[in-house]
Amino acid sequence: NLSPYQTTALISIAPKSTANVANGPRFVQVSIKPDATYKAMNPSTDRVFILDQMLTHDLWQTRYFPTSSEAWSTFANRDSGNTGVKNLARYAFGLNASNPVVTNGLPRYEFISNHLSVTFRRPLTVTDLDYVVQVSDDLINWSSLVNDVEPFTLPTTSSNDVESVSFRSKAPVTGTPKQFMRVVLEPR
User: Fold this and answer.
1) Phi, psi at residue 89, to the nearest 5°?
2) Which of 24, 61, 122, 178 is least crowded, fewest Cβ atoms below 10 Å from its Cβ?
3) Which H or E run includes 61?
4) pLDDT band of 157, cuts 50, 70, 90
């Protein structure tokens, strides 16, 4: 409950000691109920996520490959176990570290409603990477500008699947002779 003219309130959220977040994040959703005595702004709903641990690439490397003493710049470009997936992709897209399944988070490109699109997992626990989606017509000039790429929600995506994100080219495929798309991982 807010007092007259009060615009903020602190809400404390304490996970139960029995909470299990090892298999993915949990969330608490907070909503402002509509009432004629005040104006709720849009959006009036938000979520607070409860995670197992915030990760950096160094913590991830230590957790899953404790015998590796290589610098991240070298280790990230290796394919530990010769699985066909580099360590950087395993970390960035939340794949199983030792047995990555490429269908469980790596970028998946497809045509949806006449637009080139990509869907991938962006784990909430990864704190040191930015995911930049870019498009190109010639493989030389790449753009991530809002005029060229936009986030969108797949009709089949569950609202509880908060780590799966989708982006699409704003240019329709029929109006462009060639289109390419990529996800660039940039250190923060």
Assistant:
1) -65, -40
2) 178
3) helix 57-64
4) low
